Amino acid sequence: MRAANLLGVGFLCTALSASAATGVAFVHGTGNQTDALNNYWTREFVDSVRQGLPDPNNYLVVNCDFTQYAWTAGAAGCLAGQLTSFINSRGITDLVVETHSYGGNVMRWILSNPTWDSRYPNIINRIRWVNSIASSSLGTPLADAVIHGTVFEQSVGWLLGYANDAVRMQQVSWMAYFNANWLSGTAGRPRLPKGFWNVVGTDVETAPWDPDSYCGGYDLNLGLEVTQAWLSSCSDGFLDCTSQNGAGTLWFYDTSYTYGREPLDHNQSRRKCFGLDVILRNDL
């Protein structure tokens, strides 16, 4: 599934697969999650993806307080703790990380600041690559709108939460600062130590007569149709495409691989919609 210049890496991974213990970790987006398996990703999505593992039991669904700034103990510290426990308990030597939305920023903090926490280097060493699904790498104007108390506060509260620190960090100017000073992988900055591969959602499509509009929940998709009006023509209803592809390397725009060339809005890109789960399963 990767670009041609990674074929050698693919062959190497295949050659090592017999001795590697491969695992997959799912890292949620903004919010304080205690049951991300059911409340964020859905069990059917996770169960489908993990079937691509040699041992389907080698999976982790992270639950952390991602209402906090990325570097805090409750965010990156919690993520590092859960990844370390998973690596140690399952003997993971080859880890693929699936991130969504703000979770990509928290994961990128760990990759960018290996001396910040003694647990970070071992995690980085075990990672094969990160699949950055709809990451808010350059922030979103909707976060600015929430913080400044405009009409968006009610319309996107279900998606972002309200004026918490994670939302503050995802303001466009704030992400520009962190990208310039603390986070790697954006233009003009050092490269990340492991691949950070972007899956970009390009549109929101809702119509009551269209069955595809109901994948992931019609009401949630309809909310993204509303917020998309304040974003660029290429967006997933929460993030412009430029933000989703602002760090790391493009893997694919949704319609390049999805069934029926259907777009993935910000809600559908964490659901079993249009073959996304199959793409991620085959990537393992």
Descriptive report:
This protein has about 280 residues and is α/β, with parallel strands linked by helices. Helices cover about 40% and strands about 15% of the residues. It contains 14 helices and eight strands. The protein has a six-stranded parallel sheet. Helix 3 packs parallel to helix 14 (about 275-284), helix 4 (about 75-90) packs across helix 5 and helix 4 crosses helix 6. It is globular.
Strand order of the largest sheet: 3-1-5-6-7-8
pLDDT averaged residue by residue: 91
Structural class: alpha/beta
The radius of gyration is: 18 Å
H/I helix tally: 14
Q: Secondary-structure element sequence?
A: HEEHHEEHEHHEHHHHHEHHEH
Q: Stretches where pLDDT falls below 50 for ≥5 residues?
A: 3-8
N- to C-terminal separation? 10 Å
Write down how many β-strands occur, each being a DSSP E stretch of 2 or more residues. 8
Largest sheet: 6 strands, parallel
- Percent strand: 5-15%
Q: Shape, please?
A: globular
Helix content: 25-40%
